[in-house]
TrEMBL record:
Residue ranges crossing the lipid bilayer per the database entry: none
Keyword vocabulary terms for this entry: Oxidoreductase
GO MF, one annotated term: oxidoreductase activity
Similarity field: Belongs to the nitroreductase family.
Name under which the protein is recorded: Nitroreductase family protein
């Protein structure tokens, strides 16, 4: 599966089989995690075969089940940490999808203490969120989406911009709020949040999707 195909195939999945990730897929995810940490200045860990983080009341409230592997998205505190977490976390999401795995972002519905212990976070490393990863019981389903005109400000938008926004609209955001906007100014694109909770993480996520679709770098 190509990266573009992964964008269209990816849907949030909360129920998993509990099956361990295949060795070759796990190796590819670890390699991609290391690349994201180098490029993004992050401290992401892939935690495998650890069911405690998603056995809490919060996880049950969030309707998670069968989760035994996840990405602990972490890094040293900085003003742009959440946006980088979203950007590189979504890069891992699409990599996982391309490998035949499923994922779901989680900001609150997991046991934070269990994650910190399993991920062996070091002093100064802040846990931002978690991404469940594994073999879903289903492939998930598409959700209602805003339109191009809802999230784009552009006059006579070129095809690359339209495709970038199309891909951004396929990105996961907190409770599907899609509170972002892409503004085309000449040949330059500015992405901004329009509010909402976890907006900085969401902005990083949609930026990665826009870049994947448009072939243009925003960072």
């Amino acid at each position: 599966m190509t990266l573009e195909e992964a964008v269209f195939a990816r849907h949030s999945v909360r129920a998993y089989t509990g099956e361990p990730i295949a060795e070759d897929a796990a190796a590819a995810l670890k390699e991609e995690t290391e690349a994201c940490n180098r490029e993004g200045g992050l401290a992401i860990r892939l935690v495998q075969n650890e069911p405690k983080a998603f056995k809490s009341f919060l996880a049950r409230y969030g309707k998670f089940s069968g989760v035994t592997s996840y990405f602990a998205i972490a890094g040293e505190q900085a003003d742009d940490l959440q946006e980088r977490a979203g950007y590189y976390g979504e890069r891992l999401v699409l990599k996982a999808q391309a490998l035949g795995l499923n994922t779901c972002w989680a900001a609150l519905t997991f046991g934070k203490g269990a994650v910190k212990k399993a991920a062996c976070l070091k002093k100064g490393e802040k846990l931002v969120c978690v991404i469940a990863v594994g073999y879903g019981k289903t492939q998930g389903a598409a959700r209602k989406s805003k339109t191009f005109d809802d999230v784009a400000v552009a006059k006579d938008a070129p095809d690359w911009f339209k495709k970038g926004v199309e891909f951004a609209l396929l990105a996961p955001t907190a409770t599907n709020q899609q509170k972002f906007r892409f503004i085309l100014e000449g040949d330059t694109v500015r992405a901004e949040s329009t509010g909402g909770f976890y907006d900085k993480i969401d902005l990083g996520i949609v930026k990665y999707h826009f870049e994947t679709g448009s072939g243009r770098k925003l960072r």
